[in-house]
Amino acid sequence: MCQTSITKTRKILVMKSKAMVLPKVVVAVLIKKNNSYLFAKEVLEDNKETWIIPGGKVEFGESLEEAAKREIKEELGVDITITRLIDFHEAIHTNFNYHTIIFFFLATATGSIQHAPEILEAKYATKEELTQMPLVKSATWLFEKHKEL
């Protein structure tokens, strides 16, 4: 094989590998109780412990609301009633090969929190308390854009 063919083959392989990395569609559920919100602490792609709005990936054939209910049940052991869709946001961190489209829902929950092993901690916090916690950027964005929350 000549050098030109090898170079073309490498370019095609690189193009295919980039094309196969698609954004993920995820849901995040802001669970409100009185004047507090339920957050979960996880270790993220940067290996730092960070407080997130709980949720997760939408599975094929699943609606956004179905995904939200399933993810919260799996992660926190509670059932939710979705109040409304708040907004959506893209989180793009190419250095971590991370691109998600996040749909944020507002909800209420029933039941006792029993978090999954990948969740380090789960707790309700007021907006004031959240300012002292290391939040994922998308959560900060949500509260800055939607001051009515």
Explain the overall architecture.
The chain is globular, with a radius of gyration of 19 Å. It has helices at residues 3-19, 64-76, 127-130, 137-145; strands at residues 24-33, 36-43, 49-52, 55-57, 79-93, 98-110, 121-126. The mean pLDDT is 90. Strands 1, 2, 3, 4, 5, 6 and 7 form a seven-stranded mixed sheet that branches. With 149 residues, it is an alpha+beta fold. The chain has one domain: Nucleoside Triphosphate Pyrophosphohydrolase. It contains four helices and seven strands.
Q: What are the salient characteristics of this protein?
A:
about 150 residues; Nucleoside Triphosphate Pyrophosphohydrolase; globular; 7 strands; alpha+beta; single chain; about 30% helix
Assigned CATH superfamily: Nucleoside Triphosphate Pyrophosphohydrolase
Helicity range: 25-40%
What's the CATH C level?
Alpha Beta
Assembly annotation: single chain
Average pLDDT, all residues:
90
Compute the separation of the termini in Å: 62 Å
Write the topology of this structure:
Blueprint: H1 3-19, E1 24-33, E2 36-43, E3 49-52, E4 55-57, H2 64-76, E5 79-93, E6 98-110, E7 121-126, H3 127-130, H4 137-145
Parallel strand pairs: 1-6
Antiparallel strand pairs: 1-2, 1-4, 2-3, 2-7, 5-6
A few lines on this structure:
Helix content is 29%, strand content 40%.
